[in-house]
Amino acid sequence: MPITRRQFLATAIAGVAVTTLPHCTLVDSDTDDYDYVLLAEPAPVEILPGTSTPAFTYNGMAPAPLLRVRQGQRLRVKFINRLGQPSTIHWHGIRIDNAMDGVPFLTQPPVQHGESFVYDFLCPDAGSFWYHPHVNSLEQMSRGLVGALIVEEAEPAGFDQDLVVVLKDWLLNADGSFKPFSSPRQAARMGTLGNVKTVNGLQKPVFEVPAGGLVRLRLINVDNTRVFDLSLKDYPAQVLALDGNAIAKPYPLDSRPTGAGMRLDLGLVAPAAVGEEVVVYDRKGRFNFEIFRLRSVPAELPRRTRIPALPVNPIPAPQLAEAEVLNFVFEWEGALTPANSDGKVDHKFWMINKRAWGHMSADHIPAPLAELSLGKTYIFELHNASPHEHPIHLHGYTFTVIGSDKREITPYHTDTILLAKNERARIAFVADNPGDWMYHCHVIEHMKTGLMGYIRVS
Ligand code: C2O
Ligand code: CU
Ligand code: CU
Q1: Which ligand is nearest to the CA of 388?
Q2: Is the pLDDT of residue 96 over 70?
Q3: CATH number of the domain located at residue range(s) 320-457 in this protein
Q4: Can you tell me which atom of ligand 1 is nearest the CA of 438?
Q5: CATH architecture of 161-297
Q6: Mean pLDDT across the stretch 357-365?
Q7: In this structure, how many other beta carbons lie within 10 angstroms of the beta carbon of residue 288?
Q8: pLDDT confidence tier of residue 63, bands split at 50, 70 and 90
Q9: Is the distance from CB of 233 to CB of 286 less than 8 angstroms?
Q10: How would residue 343 be classed by pLDDT, with cut points 50, 70 and 90?
Q11: How many A from CA of 282 to the centre of ligand 3?
Q12: In this structure, which residues have their CB less than 5 angstroms from ion ligand 2?
């Protein structure tokens, strides 16, 4: 270790299919101070066959190495920055100590080029999470700094295969170089979509699954923009977890809109016939577009019929009767943005409660959007007063979605809620984790052009 991308691809090609992302455990044998080392640096990767893309990588890989830890244990990661620009790592979805949340200026100074920082935190919940920088996010995430963080259940969940699938688009020219990561025109609308869709860094791959085996499929949308409507068409699969968090009663998947930053865990029984395939689709209206497929390979497994449910995470139950209600309106600013004194245009297209904040620096931290009292229950009324979807994400918390004027809600736990256009939704949580917590849209261009704020819990 580290595994280079070349080795990763070689493995992938040799086996025809990759079954998992490379699992990169780097224990510092001298001191045993950390479980993983993540070294961020620019490195070329091959996304379009035969071309080279100037990516940003962790340990030479994009997408980044898969990290695994067990629920209730600490994860210790030494982050070394050799990107040539400041960075941090944020652990998306973990109910984490504020000091480890990886937000520049708000929770830690940015880690400068040549510096390192040890992230050391407890993982109280099991599930499919992920990690990414929170500095210069548009460039750093577009160039590939996104990876999966899997927190395994305290007791093995009983699957024959655990398949981690990282979905990311790249916006590339034919020679592998990047096109501009953003345009004002798109930033003011749904955001800029990539033109090369990848699954664990590969285009339309086929993953081998054990014939007749019980498969857990962890779909993780690490893209900056895209909303996938994930579907297996007619192949039966159970929804086990939404955005990392197990649901109490699994139900059959029809399709699930999964915005930037969101996840979907499915359970399915692989086809019993060797060679048979299951296709995973992105549904668009009447059409289904293939993302990747699973293919059954010979396996000596007992016949599986029942798909187990996962244990629900220990999220404190909101005390709705005593809750305080806070309102948040997400809307389009729609004003022309003047150039700054240096001639650069700092576009502001989006606002939360009439305030746009898109640019983070030491001297540019506004007041929190709300101040919450530690231990109290809050209901947030979210109103998307815009004609575009927004995956709204809150750091440091897992909240419960309790209502919507657009769809029927069976309350569920999540860290990111995809608001449809003009939707009003209600979320609730116990403010039990003190600190300043980012609260933003996960369409990175929306965040960078105003749709960002934070709440303070004290
Ligand atoms: Cu993945 Cu600030 O978030
Ligand atoms: Cu986050
Ligand atoms: Cu948005």
Answers
A1: 3
A2: yes
A3: 2.60.40.420
A4: 2
A5: Sandwich (2.60)
A6: 82
A7: 17
A8: confident
A9: no
A10: low
A11: 20
A12: 92, 395
Instruction: Report if pTM > 0.70.
Output: yes
Q: Does domain 5-152 match CATH 3.40.50.410?
A: no
Supply the residue whose CA is at minimum distance from atom 3 of ligand 1. 92
Q: What tens digit of pLDDT does each residue of 13-45 get?
A: 333 333 345 555 554 445 556 889 999 999 999
Question: Is the beta carbon of 90 within 6 A of some atom in ligand 1?
Answer: yes
Domain boundaries, the chain: 5-152, 161-297, 320-457
263 lines ligand 1 (CB under 6 A): no
pLDDT at residue 362, as a whole number: 81
How are beta strands 147-152 and 67-70 bridged, if at all? parallel
Q: Does 448 contact ligand 1 (Cβ within 6 A)?
A: no
58 Cα–ligand 3 center, Å = 27
Which of 25-39, 238-252, 321-335 has the least mean pLDDT?
A: 25-39
User: How would you label 387-421 residue by residue, b for 16+ Cβ within 10 Å and e otherwise?
Assistant: ebbbbbbbbbbbbbbbebeeeeeeebbbbbbbbbe
Q: What is the pLDDT of residue 18?
A: 37
How high is the pLDDT of residue 22? 52
Taking the centre of ligand 3 as the mean of its atom positions, its distance from the CA of residue 147, in whole angstroms, is 21
5-152 and 161-297 share one CATH topology? yes
Residue 2 has pLDDT above 50, yes or no: no
pLDDT value at residue 349: 86
Q: How far is the CA of 318 from the centre of ligand 1 (A)?
A: 23
Distance CA 93, CA 423 (A): 23
What spacing in Å lies between the alpha carbon of 447 and ligand 3's midpoint? 7
